[in-house]
Amino acid sequence: MSYNGTTKAGDLSSNSMCNKSSSKRDVSVTSSVITMTVGIVSNMLALFILLKAYRRFRFKSKASFLLFASGLVVTDFLGHLINGSLALYVYASNKDWETFDPKQVLCGFFGVCMAFFGLSPLLLGCVMAVERCVGVTQPLFHSTTWTSRHMGSLLASTWLLALLVALLPVLVWRPYQVQGARSWCFFRMVGARDWLDVLLPMLFSGLGLLALLVSFVCNTVTGFTLLWSTLHWRRDDYHRHHKSSLHFEMICQLLAIMMVSCMCWGPFLVTVIIVSLQAQQQETYGYLLLTVRLATWNQILDPWVYILLRKAVLKKLFQLVQRCRSPFPKHTFGWPFSVLGSSGETCTSTSSRADCICLDRIFLPGTLMRPIGQLP
């Protein structure tokens, strides 16, 4: 009787453990499917917006920024599609790597994809920040040196650098390793290692952190330069004001990309350095898996930066803030003056002197428009 009771209790405990592991696997698969679907849809929408904007600004200073932004969105899209598909295949195979990947070919390909699609967005964000910093601080040098052909070559070089870092473990015979969660592959960070095994993940994390640091410095310089130029901007300089508005739109997007990258990739890069330099512990695997899942949100949030932080959306948000600050706004109205063609501009207000008919930015005396209620 006691033997039968013990057997039944053991069966119940094993069944409960199997049910718990199965429920955890179902939750992981469901979350992977949801994040993969949301990331693919978001990147496709952002890519459509960027391509539409690139056609409009193809021969202007914003074209180079849009080219890199499109490359970043394409990279995020492919990263979600390839890495997500590989992760789903691993979960569908019950993480039994010895059965479906005895020669570790799939693990090597998975590790290369993880490293490439992880490092590429960081490097592209860094290059975009440097390009905008040069475009704002040295506009003449930027217009004569940073041509569209050079931008394409720089974009390809950035991808090649990330691919070289991702292929280094394969080239130096240090294959990628299945990590503790058995759901993904990355650099060898457990077991017998030499100095080269330690150097490879350190190189990956060092390049990522360096890219974030350069992005922060360049975005700070660009932001202060734009602020200084705005404070010294003359009211009649319309073309300079138009360029400044485009620069502000791009710097807002760059700052958002940098913040998203720091929040998503920063913990993972720091954790990789810590794990590479110390003895492995079981608690480290769970934290490393958590930071990897946090890093995948970078590819989901990046496209929403271009979807939400556009000039039209920022303008509407600014108008909404003004309405919230002033619940009773002053009545303004516009009067299209088509007779003047492209050189004429008419706007009216009850409180500003600048609301008058303007020909070639020369104010005509005695042309101040007043509401009907204020006529003598």
Task: Walk me through the structure.
By secondary structure, this protein is mainly alpha-helical. It has 11 helices and 7 strands. The chain has a 3-stranded antiparallel β-sheet with strand order 4-6-7, with no helix packed on it. A two-stranded antiparallel sheet has the order 1-2. The protein starts with a helix and ends in an 8-residue tail after the last strand. The model is unreliable at 1-21 and 329-368 (pLDDT under 50).
Give helix and strand order, one letter per element, not per position.
HHHHHHEEHHHHHEEEEE
Strand order of the largest sheet: 4-6-7
Helical/strand content category = mainly alpha
Helix content range: over 70%
How far apart are the termini? 110 Å
Q: Per DSSP, what share of the residues sits in E-state strands of 2 or more residues?
A: 5-15%
The largest pleated sheet is described as: 3 strands, antiparallel
DSSP E strands, number: 7
| Overall pLDDT level | 76
**Any low-confidence stretches, pLDDT <50, length ≥5?**
1-21, 329-368
Judging from the principal axes of the Cα atoms, what is the shape? globular
Radius of gyration: 28 Å
**Count of runs of 4 or more consecutive helical residues:** 11
